[in-house]
Amino acid sequence: MLDVRAYRSWGVLALSAVVVQIILGGWVSTNYAALACSDFPLCHGRWLPDMEFYSAFTLHRELGMDASGNLLSLQALTAIHWTHRLWAVAVLLLVGTAAFKLARLRGLCVWGMFLGVLLLVQLGLGISNILFSLPLALAVAHNAGAALLLATLVVINFRLFNMR
Predict the structure, then answer these.
(1) Cis omega before residue 135 (within 30°)?
(2) How many C-alpha atoms does 144 have within 13 Å on its Cβ side?
(3) CA–CA gap between residue 156 and residue 139 (Å, rounded)
(4) 89-94 LR contacts (CB < 8 Å, sep 24+)
(5) What DSSP letter does each residue of 117-135 carry, written as one string?
């Protein structure tokens, strides 16, 4: 008999990572930070660009503005964008590991492979948005990819928690 508890942990971890990334992506979008870093893999020609996190992640303010009502600085926009990028690496590792493990599990191998493909497509869409300066079609595809990743992980977790 197969013990699925470890698989459940990976499923919950992967789902949680994607939820956090979707929240960060929404923060990027609503604060107009999508084009704050126009190069890849660097940002402003550096691995660790100048950033200002306090204004970037202050919640009690108008979107796109700091607490004083001024537009967010480039350093704050960069912090928002860079955080979404950095968390994408965590998502790649966590969801990628979960996909690999699930692809080896009888009953969920197709879901695991589908999850892995979706993850790679989503990563490619995110990078393409940077390299091509956020064309609308790619931005919409990136949002749709996030929704598909989320839905896929919900289904996987539902199945994992109903397996005996």
Answers:
(1) no
(2) 8
(3) 26
(4) 90/17, 91/17, 91/18, 91/21, 91/119, 92/119, 92/123, 94/13, 94/14, 94/17
(5) HHHHHHHHHHHHHHHTT--
Please compute, for residue 11, the number of CA atoms within 13 A of its CA located in the half-sphere on the CB side.
Answer: 24
- The span from the CA of 97 to the CA of 116, in Å, is 9
23, 24, 109, 111 from 14: Cα distances, Å:
14, 15, 16, 13
pLDDT digits (tens, 9 = 90+) for 55-110: 999 988 888 888 888 899 999 999 999 999 999 999 999 999 999 999 998 889 99
Tell me which amino acid residue 157 is.
Answer: N
